[in-house]
Amino acid sequence: MGRKYSPAAANIYLRRFDHHAMYGFRIQPRYYSRFLDDIFTVWPGTRHELLEFQDFLNNLIPGIKVTFTIRNQITEFLDTQVYKGFNAEDQCVLKTKVYFKSTDTHQLLHKNSFHPKHTFNGIAKSQFIRFKRISSSKADYDEASSALIKVLIVRGYNKRALPRLKSDVWRHYDTTLQRFKDLQISKPELIPIVTYYDNFHSRLNRRWKRSIKNNPVFEGARIISPYKRHKNLKDLLTRGRLDSAPTPQSPCSTLSTIEDRLDALIEAINRAG
Question: What is the pTM (predicted TM-score) of this model?
Fold first, then answer.
């Protein structure tokens, strides 16, 4: 917990779990996705078979347990509600709208805070954009936006500017990927795989690179393998930064400090064999 690589490490650890969840049971989910420890699944079987599937998942990896929340019409996943609706052909489809938890107090930045004026406009606009991306219909968007406007007015935002901004986002903001396709990026995306330069990490680097190349998501990307060196004797004996108020030392005390560091380093090497 708390490390930058923690989410990536968790995803790598759960690769086998995800594979068995999608293909290992006698009934395969119609849809399966996971974001860290939250799983969303569309199940084609009965409720009893779904409970069997839950037992199957709980026996895959010791210590990894899941608890299903089963809904027939509408369910929550992160900040989204997924519900059954009908399209123009009167077919039952899944739709989405914004979900606010009961503990959500909407503690957005207050207008009296000492920030540039454009910051507050950006906060409101980003929320409206998020609502449009999640909402399947204008009615769902209006419902979530009304709740947001009430909160922002209490927090000092312009009462007349918010409805205009809400309408402008719905009419003009493009939530599709077309705006990215129009950029016509000529250079392939560069993905560096950085590891230490030794026998073990070089083998790890090659396997990691091969795994990324086999993933169709990264098709066309350029994969490179830069290496970084381990710490050497100079790194261990030289301080990385100066003290703010260094205390003067005599030549004898400085020499003694270096000797102590060398003795500790030699002792560590001897212990390592």
Answer: 0.58
